[in-house]
Specification:
Rossmann fold, eight-stranded mixed sheet, globular
Length: about 270
């Protein structure tokens, strides 16, 4: 079982819609058993599915109880909760404040691994202790940003944040970190003018392509923008298209699947192409 957290301390990059669509691609196209965890207090992922439960992610942090909502045979969800804040959970006063979720996962890992191949965690766009707890249990942390200077600054900050969590969550005797997460980046909402990217996007891509952690960029597309609005991933939308529509959108689908394949490769411990 592999765990990915999606995070960036900047809004508007498309983090939640990415998690939603990546989760559907993994379960629908790659036939992976996927658990989505909504760790963002806006609960965008949760609102995208017609499911209810008595327990949410908040209960995992407070009582340890949990409830998994089955979406379909390959896709499940642990619902989000607007109470998921450092203050509500009083995380700063707890011992091992970065490892609360880590300890819960240690206790429940085997039963989760029997059910799921991949866990995707959506987070609030911040550097809170809640977010740090999600990063601490992850194999990779994926930054999703639009082509902006602020987005690139947030990516640099994310790398520092992950390193900081690693330095804080250490074993007392050996000083070895409990945290193994590595940070990766994808660009999102890349705009084209004809067959070429816009000048702003080109400048962004010229910089990020030099970063070894860069896994590719996804072009801006109405299909993607409306996925959380109509609660249909771009891959579910494709199933309802005519052959002509599929052909018209083929470049976009080739692009997004290339990026998702790269993410899956690093998540599973391979080298991205």
């Amino acid at each position: 079982m592999k765990i990915q957290t999606t995070n960036l301390d900047k809004g508007g990059g498309g983090k939640s819609s990415h998690t939603y669509n990546e989760g559907d691609w993994l379960s629908r196209v790659k036939n992976k058993r996927v658990l989505l965890i909504d760790g963002a207090r806006e609960c965008n992922l949760t609102h995208s599915f017609d499911v209810t439960s008595e327990k949410t992610i908040y209960d995992i942090f407070t009582t340890g109880d949990y409830e998994i909502c089955r979406i379909n045979d390959n896709l499940s969800l642990i619902r989000g909760d607007e109470r998921l804040t450092d203050e509500q959970l009083d995380l700063s006063s707890r011992n091992n404040k970065y490892l609360q979720l880590f300890m819960w996962f240690s206790e429940h890992y085997d039963e989760l691994a029997e059910q799921f191949d991949i866990i995707l965690i959506d987070t609030h766009n911040d550097e809170s202790l809640v977010t740090a707890n999600f990063i601490a249990v992850s194999d990779i942390v994926l930054g999703v940003t639009d082509a902006s200077t602020n987005g690139f600054r947030a990516w640099l900050a994310l790398k520092k944040f992950v390193d900081y969590i690693k330095s804080e969550a250490v074993e007392v005797i050996t000083k070895k970190s409990y945290v193994k997460a590595e940070a990766y980046l994808i660009g999102n909402k890349i705009e084209y003018y004809g067959n070429n990217v816009t000048e702003t996007c080109k400048q962004f891509l010229d910089v990020v392509q030099e970063d070894e952690a860069y896994l590719g960029s996804i072009q801006k597309k109405e299909l993607l923008a409306k996925s959380l609005v109509i609660n249909q991933s771009v891959f579910e939308q494709r199933e309802g298209m005519t052959d002509k529509q599929k052909q018209d959108h083929q470049k976009f689908y080739d692009n997004i699947e290339y990026v998702y394949h790269n993410i899956l490769r690093v998540l599973e411990g391979e080298v991205a192409s």
